[in-house]
Amino acid sequence: MSEKITQALAQFEFPNDKPLILAVSGGVDSMVLLHACLSLKNKLVIAHVNHGVREASKQEAAFLKKFADNHQTPFEYTTFSHSPNHNFHNEARHFRLTFFKSIAQKYQTDSILMAHHFDDQVEHFFMHLTHHHNTSLLRGMRPFEPYEDVYLIRPFLNVSKDDLMRYAKAKNVPYVEDESNTSSKYTRNRFRHEILPKFKDENPQFNDAIKSHMENLNSLIMIADEYYRTLLEKHHQDIKIDTFLTWSYYLQKKHVLTMVKNIDSIALISDAQVKDMIKQLQSSQNFKVYLTDSIILHKEYNTFFIEKHEPSLSSSINVTHEQTLNIHENLQLEFSHKKKYHKSSKYFELWYNDKVFPITIRNRSDGDYMYFTYGRKKIKDLLIDLKISPKKRDEIWLITDEKNVLWIPELDIQSHQVQKKHVLYIYAHHLKNLQK
């Protein structure tokens, strides 16, 4: 039985001078991996995450620390703290991978070994088949998976749990038992102990059948994903709505989930949300909608995009005296009673009799309007007529007094003014035209 474990490791040719980061929980799977790797010439580093959900977690960390000390092996340890705004398992996985990557960088290596085995693959397949709608997840885990600038290596994916148990018994491998592995309140345990054994009773070659189906499915997904990449290249990464709506649902969902992952790697978007989003994109109306508490979908004419919502620190600035303010990287506003000449600047003359301050710089609000020689017009209608995108409409800055919108400096739209005793000059410096 040790041959099967040794052969599983031998399929990867690790350079002798490259340290190996081992993700070790203390359970039998990861301890077999650790024990088998002790025979390699590589320097090993044990990396352990305490998820903070069981009392025994501290004892498990102490067990691993003692094992590491006995084998003169570095031991790296951290504790996970769950945020209630995210799915526990998804956030925990992201936390583990980020931690393992940081340890790889610390030891100047890119190899992270994990002890997932074939039984994990089968459980993974059926759990996603039952509870998720993302077909890509059915392809299972890969033995060699790039993750940012490191590699996740799973040498035991063709090794069964029974094989690992037999190795542990034959080699007297120490390990800790996680009592939660027997609890039926966890989905994985119900599949492991109650559901999958019934399939194996029905077909003794069940594992081989599932392996064959996963290999075939993986091939089909690879073909579909390659086609998706060619579509992105064809359209230079800019997928218009009319093109998007002609795609198959698999490609549409792939595109949406890729967009979400690019801005938030741990966000979860449901199948129902994707279908609802596709339906909304068929509308002629522009809109924005929250997919999660922090991710917004924008539809603007024939384009759509997803962005992370970053709350503005301030959407209103009160000006009480002559001064110069940096509003954002493309807009500086100067308030002065002196007439100046700036070739690259626009300016607005604010006429008044006795009092001019305070002046407010703020973003648009519902009901805002401006006065022109022909009457007044809503700011919203004005921006729509100019085909300013909904997102940029909310970002545009207005200059107002206590009652009226006076000037939109980024578009140089000025309200009608009547000359009075005095004038305040408002200059907009380093202004760039809005991209419509």
Can you walk me through this structure?
This protein has 436 residues and is an alpha+beta fold. The protein folds into three domains: 2-204, HUPs (Rossmann fold), CATH 3.40.50.620; 239-308, no CATH class; 316-429, no CATH class. The chain is 38% helix and 22% strand. The protein has helices at 2-10, 28-37, 57-70, 88-106, 118-131, 161-170, 187-202, 206-234, 241-244, 249-263, 271-281, 379-385, 390-395; strands at residues 20-23, 44-50, 75-79, 111-113, 144-147, 150-153, 287-290, 295-300, 303-308, 316-319, 323-328, 331-336, 346-352, 359-363, 369-372, 375-378, 397-400, 405-408, 413-414, 422-429. It has a six-stranded mixed sheet, with helices on both faces. The protein has a five-stranded antiparallel sheet with strand order 10-14-17-18-19, with no helix packed on it. Strands 11-12-20-13 form a four-stranded antiparallel sheet, with no helix packed on it. Helix 2 packs across helix 6, helix 5 (118-131) crosses helix 7 and helix 5 (118-131) crosses helix 8 (206-234). The protein starts with a helix and ends in a 7-residue tail after the last strand.
State the domain count: 3
CATH class of the largest domain: Alpha Beta
Beta-strand level of the residues, as a percent range? 15-25%
Helix tally?
13
Mean model confidence by pLDDT: 89
CATH superfamily of the largest domain: HUPs
What distance lies between the first and last C-alpha atoms, to the nearest angstrom?
66 Å
**Main beta sheet: strand number and arrangement?**
6 strands, mixed
- Give the C-alpha Rg: 31 Å
Shape: elongated
> Which consecutive residue ranges, at least 5 long each, have pLDDT under 50?
none
Number of strands: 20
Percent of residues in helices: 25-40%
CATH topology name of the largest domain: Rossmann fold
From the coordinates shown, what is the CATH architecture of the largest domain?
3-Layer(aba) Sandwich
Strand order of the largest sheet: 3-2-1-4-6-5
Structural class: alpha+beta
